Amino acid sequence: MEELKFVGKEIQRIDEKEKITGAARYVDDINFGPDLLYAEIVESPHPHALIKKIDTSEAEKVEGVVKVVTGKDFPYKFGLYMKDRYIFAQDRVRFIGEQVAAVVARDPKIAQKAAKLVKVEYEPLPTVFDPLEAIKEGAPIIHPELGQYSHVPWFFPKGGSNIAHHRKVRRGDIEKGFKEADYVFEDTYKIPRFAHCCMETHISVGYYDLSGRLTLYNSSQSPHVQKSLIADALSALGISEKDVRVITPYVGGGFGGKAGVTMEVIAAALAVACKGHPVKVRWRRDQEFYNTYMRQQVISKLKVGVKKDGTITAFQIENFWDAGPYVEYGANVVNASGLSATGPYRIPNIKIDSYCIYTNLPAAGPYRGFGYSEMLFSVESHMTRVAKAIGMDPVEFRRKNAIREGDPLAYGAPMNPNGLLESIDKVSEEIEWGKKEESKDPNKAIGKGFAIFWKAPAMPPNVSTTAFLKFSGDGSVNILVSGMEIGQGYLTAMAQIAAEILTIPVEKIRVELPDTDRNPYHWQTVASHVTWASGNAVKRAAIEAREKIFDVVSRAYYFNKDSLYLENGKVKCKTKPDFELDLKDFVINGIMKEDGYYVGQNIVASGQFFVEFASALQDPETSQGGHPNVHYTVGAAAIKLEVDKQTGKIRILKVVEAIDCGKAINPVNVKDQMIGGLLQGLATALYEDMRFDKNGKILNPNFTDYKIPTSLDIPEEVVPIIVEVPQPDGPYGARGMAEHPMIPAAPMVADAVEDAVGVRIKALPVTAEKIALALAKGEKEPDYYWHIMK
Amino acid sequence: MNKISFMLNGEKVSLYVEPNDLLLDVLRDKLGDKSPKYGCGRGDCGTCTVLLNGKSVRSCLILAVEVDGQEIMTLEGLSKNGLTDLQKYFIKHSSFQCGFCAPGMIVSLEEFLKKNPKPDEEEVKEAISGNLCRCTGYVPIIRAVMDYVKNRGG
Amino acid sequence: MAIAHLFEYYKPKNLDELVELLFRYKSKARILSGGTDLIVRIKDGFEFPEVVIDIKGIKELSELKFDGKNLFIGATVTFNEIIENDIVKEKYPLLWESAKSVASMGIRNRATLAGNICSAVPSLDSGPSLLIYEAEVILRSKEGERKVNMNEFFLGPRKTVLKEDEFVYGVNVPLPNKKNGSSYVKLGRYNGEDLAQVGLGILVLEGNEYRIAHCAVGPVAARARKIEKLLNGKPLSDSLIEDAKKLIEEEISPITDVRATKEYRIHMAKVMLERGLKAAVDRMNGKGTPYGEKLI
Which A residues 157-196 touch B at CB under 8 Å? Predict the structure, then answer.
């Protein structure tokens, strides 16, 4: 294989300069002019209630108020995978903070004041916050019309209940598997909700011009999905997709929270209501917590059968997902994680039930890891305990049962090439697994934990992406894509891929942020699939451009096209060693022949990647058949930490993580994803601790009491390890890895705490408080869970 | 309305503000200085950090009227004469990801590195601990600062 | 988010103007110095002042001075000014250590010690050290000046003895007259800035004299008199510490909230008492953990 010059190199980020000078523009940094209007949302104070009456008259009288909008103005539903949500609440509210009305004014202060004058009469309804309560007979039904909702064909809602979707997976014979087992271990794990906490809150500015053109400036991971969903939601007003334009400048963090559509549809509706004015909707930090998505809570019941030699014979899991009152996106988290709920193990007999359950907590949905961060806490905690219970080393147990290439997945399709065993070996060596360490402080104990993980992109089976590439006269290149730079280094990776084909340095390439009018289609920047999918499209666009370049040169100089190649941005010819032609000399203006006539074309190209090998059509009772996931990215991680036995406080001494990304397009960016993602995961494991009161109101929607890590909370040492077992259909073998780093954090922390002090925490987070109280009271398996406070 | 005048990035500005206008909003919406960002509105996150008479402060918790006669410096002011040496190290280390915390982080470091030109790693961590970053895990930022400190002259 | 509530803004140039303004507006006025508490309270809709009086233009209030026996901390002195003051660090290490635990650099550049005590939140970090140093708060109004011992200043959560036309001029902190060692032990949820879930200040003076105060485990920051009484006159020993820990539950009345359970607060107060006492004694003897380093 030829040596790569740009791909695989530690090239500096191409967007860094904009970001460190303050030049980078985020939505709120754009000037919209003096006719900009500001919206303030009127929110429900009830977790579940009927709306009896809305009186907007007092608010409308306030000077400076342009419009007051309520549900009756926009009786339209929206949703990505299931249409169960309205732009504004109609006759019923289903969580505290749900949008009931909006006041639009010339000034944000006026909007705030007037919003307080909107009077809403409610009739409270019975509530349910616990997913296990919500599926009991007689529980309040949150969506009486569930049976009529439209949804993707791979969802199975149960009308008349709170079960919005039930993903069943059945493989082998589960009863036989348990009979064959020498030991069977059962337990329940609880994973509460968490919040993304992007530093930039959601913001959307909508502008519906006097001709009926709707432009939205969104902080978003999903410009094209938003264009299409918003056009669909407003189609009754005659709005068509061609008239909707979504512009997404830099985004201050995504992590899944800015995927799909949430508050952007409100800005779209308000813009339509205030034709001719841009309307800004910017979430406050507290709204960011309760009215976008949170991560879902899941109660996980697990039963695993093993033989004495450590072979897993049977795996049964029931995951009860608390998705809140709107599951239009969250149900697919439940679906995707249901299909992969075994974790990366080869298991012959499998029974998986993944339930998506409506509750009256705020809506929940995708968050970095898309279900895997949640459920692998239970699976990986359990696997360590199973191994220890049969007297086997937990790493050896994983090595023995790790899934290998070609093994059947829970739904039957074969596992892709992967570096799981290599990851296990490298991580266990780096953490010195098996070497017991003693703390110098008698009050403290050191423990180690180990976890393996996997995650597949969760996507519709037919996702696609396109890239446009165009040259300028000086030989520099602009690439138009609609993947989103959300911090992961996407723009730089795309530039590197194009640079590799075109043999020009990344400094000569700009990769443009999405504008759905100008940039071609890309489904959305989720699922850790953009390097793989968009990278393929960019590579193909660069190859097409190269073909056109060769075509021009071969026609001008009568060379055989096959003899041409690119080197350092120049066209060269294998048969004419002294020939070279710089790209800038002809990519726009062509080549003048001896007679003064020109041969040429403007070098523009497109590349596309369309998944044609996936299918979501599976037997609903077993999930057998079909090919719902394009591939899995796998990895392993370990932690060494020190626990203070009196205070419960944890000091993280070392973290190691290996991920098989197929090919690291930019190794420094890959490693930095691991470093950042691990800290995000460790925070959910250790101290991020969302609380609700008994009415389902979030108690800590701020950084004063929802503690996200600071620079003082980083591990003492982090060792990221890149493993590269190429993905056959990936660009240069690459597959995605950006969500994965946070997945193993929680189980390895729980394992290490048990290793250190003998306390097994089965409900996240593993706080100092829980450890200290358990140690003080001599509890080995404490059951502290304060998600909803009494 | 109150008339206020202050030095913004070395230039005198005068304008009318309401007593309840926040410095952050005035800088962004009236003076077009967009690098300080709204992140939490309560002083918890540091994305709105600016220098007030050389000291890093939260512009979301300061009334614009309070800065009458004072000096304000934002990241725009620090960047306007070309990249600072520290900024060059951030580029070298690809320190920031989404970039939203960068203006506040860099402004805090500006104050800190003036006060403490040769800090150790723990002191750097302490100095930026009020500037939250959700992407990077802070390591690439600290990496750049320590590299800069090691290589800076004098 | 913008502040919708409108108020008038005054910035008096001297004490007389301030006194007049407060007399005129009384409870309708709020004093603004660092704003790190007040502005958040106005945004959250907990305060609706008609008048905001910015006291940062008054020179006397910005003084931080030591006369050999007494440290004066003016009302507009920020936590960072306290931390960066060498006399504070050398002679009032407990105050220094607790000031250092407050929030982060950008907040400490604005937040003031006087503002902290006026906010009178149960978790205030400056409470234990001022109680222990037996500071007095200097209050002024049109009627003149009065001095209130720190131990009588707090009346309840967000309640102090301040009258509606009174302001805090500054705080006097007497220098302990004996060799001493101290510690401020603070329980937070992680290493980054946090409000105290338990705060414990300890001062040990030569001759086995102990002063102990807590915050965040009762409606107001307060001295732990029963524990002090038990300890006073006795050299610190493991058995004495055990006896002292037994009194913790009589001294404090913590609640369960989103930050911690009552149970954990009690448990930690005991652990912190033990570590804090040992550290204070060690420090008095010139050894042990340096000031500013975390004890938990």
Answer: 196
